[in-house]
Fold this protein.
Amino acid sequence: MLPSTAQDDTGTVRAAEPRLVPLGEGLAISSSRYRQEIHYWQQLIDSLPAIVWVSDEAGNTLFFNARWYAYTGQEFGELRQDEWAKALHPDERDAVDAHWFATVNAYRSDYAATFRLRRHDGVYRHYLCRAAPLATGPGWIGFCTEVPRGVEING
């Protein structure tokens, strides 16, 4: 989806609504237009004040937005297998892993957890992480947000 605007005769924007851009059989889209759309969504996801991630149906992480790499100091190549888990506090890795894969195996349930993530300077901060199965196919989309000090999280 890309934002679409409606203008009146004077050129004043009267409405903004999302529109679907079908990428189906018989539709030709230029590689330039495709790159523009990918760039648009990448900028949107990278500008969010949260860590955003996507995994496959088996729970293997496929994507992190730029905020993950800036926060953890990890490099893009460290995404392979479970290298990202090195950013979890060692005392919580096993429990977080078990809870995540139990949720993945149930597939149609949402995931929620709190845990500590190591910042690039070695300091651990508390994060709330939520994920849900993708509506468009197999896999998951999730986000993690820092929990401010003094805030209690219930459920």
Remarks:
- The beta strands are 2-7, 13-19, 51-55, 61-64, 111-118, 124-133, 140-146.
- The longest helix spans residues 31-47.
